[in-house]
Specification:
- The strands form 4 sheets. Strands 5-8-2-1-11-13-14-12 form an 8-stranded mixed β-sheet, sandwiched between helices. Strands 3-4 form a two-stranded antiparallel sheet. A two-stranded antiparallel sheet has the order 6-7.
- It starts with a helix and ends in a 12-residue tail after the last strand.
- A hairpin with a 2-residue loop joins β3 and β4.
- It is α/β, with parallel strands linked by helices.
- It is globular and about 60 Å long.
Length: 298
């Protein structure tokens, strides 16, 4: 036995202890998407992380996307995938495929969670009338059955959490006429986190976090108060897909979520490293004056 290695493992556990104590019985929403959903090995590591969070006393909720998988199936049936301003144009036939694919992804994730010994239930925003939406337009353009969330009824989520289930949610909702709509998974995760007053919202993405200079990886920001995040946006430093994500983060914190984490889902066990270590691996966005965790040991 290598005693030095065993001592390092013990130190890791001790470092995690204050975080486990602080967030015990608190809700954490994990938005799961990007490359970590496509690579089977990464997928297992993400689910292992979430299961561990559950087993040490957190109350995790997974909200997942499925854009790459939807595109694959749209192509398979010989239909075209069209995007306007980065949003998928979703006609009736595309919506039908999207819902089938998202439900398939959902049940696969449930199966994976349960294979690791935790009870899980997969639901969509249609279940229990959880996600009520209205039609979303992109700069005034009609993009079909894409929904903007206007209301979240979190009763079914709380029922599952209280009964020790891990909810896995796919971003499909209904309007007042019961038409089915696809919802951007980031928007769904943000709305759900606000509705359940989550302690944390974690975005697994295909980038390391928020950069002061998007072209320089050395400028990764570990912690960012929402005023500083606003400043970055207003000064034009943030662009592309990070802009709506950062706006979602700011909105979540202004509506009761304590901390939002943006991290690289391509890094194995990034969720554990970000939540349970003093350094973290992504960017944590927090409300003004909140306790700063990272860099304590530096």
């Amino acid at each position: 036995m290598n005693l030095e290695n065993e001592m390092m493992k013990a130190e890791v556990l001790i470092e995690a202890l204050p975080y486990i104590q602080k967030f015990n019985r608190k809700i954490i929403v994990v938005k799961y998407g990007g490359s970590a959903m496509v690579d089977e090995e990464l997928k297992r590591k993400v689910i292992e992380d979430v299961v561990l969070l559950k087993l040490v006393g957190f109350k995790p909720i997974i909200v997942h996307g499925g854009g790459k998988e939807i595109s694959k199936w749209v192509d398979k049936v010989g239909m075209e995938t069209n995007f306007i301003n980065g949003l998928r144009v979703t006609d009736e036939a595309t919506m039908e495929i999207a819902e089938m694919v998202l439900n398939k992804v959902n049940k696969n994730l449930v199966n994976l969670v349960q294979s690791l010994g935790v009870k899980s239930v997969g639901i969509s925003g249609k279940d229990g009338g959880m996600l009520k939406v209205e039609k979303k337009f992109s700069n005034g353009q009609d993009i079909g059955y894409v929904g903007e969330i206007k209301e979240v009824d979190a009763k079914i989520i709380h029922t599952l959490l209280e009964n020790d289930f891990l909810p896995v949610i796919c971003p499909v909702g209904v309007d007042d006429e019961n038409n089915t709509y696809n919802i951007n998974a980031d928007d769904a995760a943000c709305a759900i986190a606000k509705a359940v007053k989550a302690e944390k919202l974690a975005f697994l993405t295909d980038i390391e976090g928020v950069y002061k200079d998007k072209d320089d990886p050395a400028t990764l920001i570990s912690e960012l108060e929402i005023d500083e995040a606003d400043e970055l946006i207003n000064s034009g430093f943030i662009g592309g897909g990070m802009l709506p994500k950062l706006n979602n983060c700011i909105d979540a914190i202004r509506n009761g979520v304590s901390r939002v984490h943006i991290m690289d889902g391509r890094m194995p066990h990034c969720l554990l490293l970000e939540i349970f270590t003093n350094k973290g691996v992504g960017t944590a966005i927090l409300k003004k004056g909140a306790e700063r965790f990272y860099g304590k040991d530096q």
